[in-house]
Write a structure and sequence with these properties.
Blueprint lengths: L5 H27 L19 E2 L24 E2 L26 E4 L1 E2 L10 H4 L5 E2 L2 H5 L41 H23 L9 E8 L6 H16 L5 E8 L11 H11 L8 E4 L1 H7 L24 H10 L5 E5 L4 E3 L2 H13 L6 H5 L5 H4 L2 H11 L20 H4 L24 E3 L4 E2 L11 E2 L12 E2 L5 E4 H14 L2 E2 L4 H9 L3 E3 L13 H8 L33 H9 L11 H5 L12 E3 L10
Helix pairs in contact: 4-5, 8-14, 14-15
Keywords: Membrane, Transmembrane, Transmembrane helix
InterPro entries: DUF3405
Organism: Akanthomyces lecanii RCEF 1005
């Protein structure tokens, strides 16, 4: 047995004490920077359909935790119609025989007791209903959730609590999705409604034709796992955005080919074999293929001049430049005026149409005056109160700054684009004299779902991933970014981005390039403050504002802003951020599955003390990587 000397023992003891001491210091510093971790998680999200009531004052128990009062029988959901003014649209069908109309989703009037309200963004501001909620069967039952594959569904029957779920199939029956061709269904729908609109226009001289079409481009890749839940989600997107609008929207899959031996321009036989291997048959007609090699051919030139490339990835690669194939897609599809860039791990809990339509309408209605300054900040209703008070506050915060930008930057390093060389102005005509109304009802060229912050002097990891610009501009090149590339891009913005890359070999990291080109050339960019939830009942609102608008001039910009490596952890408790932990946890519980940390699942929802399956307001969730317990 080894003998330890008293001296060695004292040294060991001293070392342990030092480690404990410094560990305590580090832990205290960690918690000091994350005050929300002292606050218990909110369980009020998990109150079920048996507690649905009209929004009112919450009832709290002695510990301050929301307590629901279940009823014996939940209310009955109703078909949800977020399509006002479309009474003249021709009904669109899933099948070529016109026997199965596009189904409705279902919603409950009211929300469960003590349901939290969003901390960032606003339903009222965007005109999205907040007095209804959606359970999993009302949301996904019409698309195949809750019945087996032999009946045309996706399975998972009886895996979760399903009492009274049959209401959603009462009118349509169980729809068999096994032989649906979504590309054909979209095209038939658009053509049918377009012909009807032309006929109405001939008779009444008042055209009801769709004047502007939007593509929803979902980015996919070879090897993607087509889970039943994702299939449900894609069916929902096509139905709600395309078939229910008569073709106002059209969904496409922009799929990256990773196999370097497969030619993107292959003949139809090779293409058919490739798609059969990688994409479910119902979606194959929606696919546009692309590859990194193709992008190198479309965007040749010298891209060696770069401020910094922190990842070491190729500039033509999908990680740094997923906008390149989107730019080319827009070039190849002149029928669309706008393009929603969408990611596979985003979910809308509620109607896709209501969410995208209201975001678009709100953004288009914004004035350009102080728009970049508004874009830099989170709107926190609990702190700012009204939107009018928010804009007034921003005006005061910007009084000491230079005159706000309405149009393009005037800088010697800025290269002119073709439309600028031809003397075309990007600004609406009224902007010269009416700054307050400049841009009102002008279509937004860029809609982002997070604030658009000033990248310069920030600690954002990709701030220096800038290609093709003079390195002398390292610190001073104006650039903007919005975390998460999901957003709406106009044709003219994408064509400007295309020209910057193709003609000048300019490029930036994916989340920076669209907003920066908009900033340089005067395109209208808008951050739309959609509702974002936190998983803790954190307050007061001033404390939340202190962490989310913690940057320069009380914004998200600068070194201390919430998107730097040392500060972005605050988003981990939110329902919308690429590092969110809450989004997937909330989504899986809403789907009816137990949380790995406890809570939820069949027994809890259907037990004597249970309140039934969850029912939540419409919201955007990201990222959703795993949905079913088997994944």
């Amino acid at each position: 047995m080894r003998n330890f000397s008293p001296v060695r023992s004292r040294r060991t003891f001293s070392l342990v004490i030092c480690l404990v001491f410094f560990g305590a210091l580090l832990y205290n510093d960690y918690m000091r920077k994350r005050p929300w971790l002292h606050i218990p998680r909110s369980n009020a999200y998990y109150n079920g359909v048996h507690t649905i009531t009209r929004p009112g004052n919450p009832v709290l128990d002695r510990q301050g935790e929301a307590r629901a009062s279940p009823t014996d029988k939940p209310p009955t959901p109703r078909p949800y119609n977020p399509y006002p003014g479309r009474e003249t649209s021709r009904t669109c069908y899933l099948d070529a025989e016109d026997t199965t109309p596009a189904p409705n989703i279902y919603a409950y009037d009211g929300v469960p007791e003590q349901m939290p309200t969003p901390v960032l963004g606003s339903y009222e501001l965007l005109k999205i209903r907040d007095d209804v909620c959606f359970d999993r069967f009302g949301r996904y039952g019409p698309y195949g959730l809750g019945y087996g594959k032999a009946l045309g569904g996706v399975g998972f029957e009886k895996e979760t609590e399903d009492s009274s779920a049959e209401h959603v199939w009462a009118k349509t029956g169980l729809i068999d999705y096994r032989r649906i061709n979504w590309a054909d269904a979209q095209q038939r729908c658009y053509e049918s409604n377009n012909r009807q609109a032309e006929s109405i226009a001939d008779e009444s001289r008042t055209s009801t034709r769709i004047k502007s079409r939007t593509a929803v481009v979902v980015r996919s890749y070879e090897g993607f796992a087509w889970t039943p839940m994702f299939i449900l989600n894609l069916r929902a997107m096509i139905t709600e955005l395309s078939l229910k609008t008569g073709g106002e929207y059209s969904l496409h899959l922009l799929m990256q080919v990773k196999d370097t031996k497969y030619p993107v321009w292959a003949d139809s036989t090779l293409r058919e074999a490739y798609l059969k291997k990688h994409v479910p048959s119902e979606f194959q007609g929606l696919v546009t293929l692309w590859s990194e090699l193709q992008m190198k051919l479309l965007y040749p030139g010298d891209y060696s001049i770069c401020f910094r490339n922190p990842t070491g990835e190729d500039v033509h690669g999908v990680y740094r430049s997923p906008h390149l194939p989107l730019q080319n897609f827009a070039k190849e599809h002149p029928e669309y005026d706008h393009f929603w860039n969408w990611e596979m791990d985003v979910r809308v809990l509620g109607s896709y149409y209501e969410m995208l339509d209201r975001l678009s309408k709100w953004a288009d209605a914004r004035s350009r005056e102080l728009l970049w300054e508004h874009n830099e900040r989170y709107y926190i209703p609990g702190y700012h109160k009204s939107w009018e008070n928010f804009t007034s506050t921003v005006r005061k915060q910007e009084e000491s700054q230079n005159q706000a930008l309405l149009g393009p930057l005037n800088a010697p390093w800025r290269k002119k684009l073709s439309f600028e060389e031809e003397g075309e102005s990007i600004l609406p005509s009224d902007c010269l004299h009416q700054h307050g109304t400049c841009g009102v009802e002008e279509d937004a060229d860029l809609i982002t779902l997070n604030p658009i912050f000033d990248v310069r002097h920030s600690d954002w990891y990709f701030a220096q991933d800038v290609t093709g610009y003079d390195k002398a501009l390292w610190e001073d090149l104006p650039r903007r970014a919005a975390i998460i590339t999901v957003g709406r891009y106009s044709r003219r913005l994408l064509m400007a981005m295309h020209e910057e890359v193709w003609r000048y070999n300019h490029n930036m990291f994916a989340e920076m390039f669209p907003a920066s080109i908009a900033f340089h050339h005067g395109f209208k960019a808008v951050y739309a403050p959609h509702p974002v939830y936190l998983n803790r009942a954190w307050g007061p609102a001033s404390e939340i504002d202190k962490h989310f608008n913690r940057g320069e001039r009380h914004s998200t910009s600068g070194r201390s802003g919430p998107f730097s490596l040392s500060t972005e952890h605050v988003h981990g408790i939110s329902s919308w951020y690429y590092k969110s932990h809450f989004a997937e946890q909330l989504w899986r519980r809403w789907l009816g599955y137990a949380d790995s940390k406890g809570g939820g699942g069949l027994e809890e929802e259907s037990g004597d003390d249970g309140t039934g399956r969850m029912c939540l307001r419409s919201m955007l969730l990201h990222p959703i990587k795993h949905e079913h317990p088997s994944e």
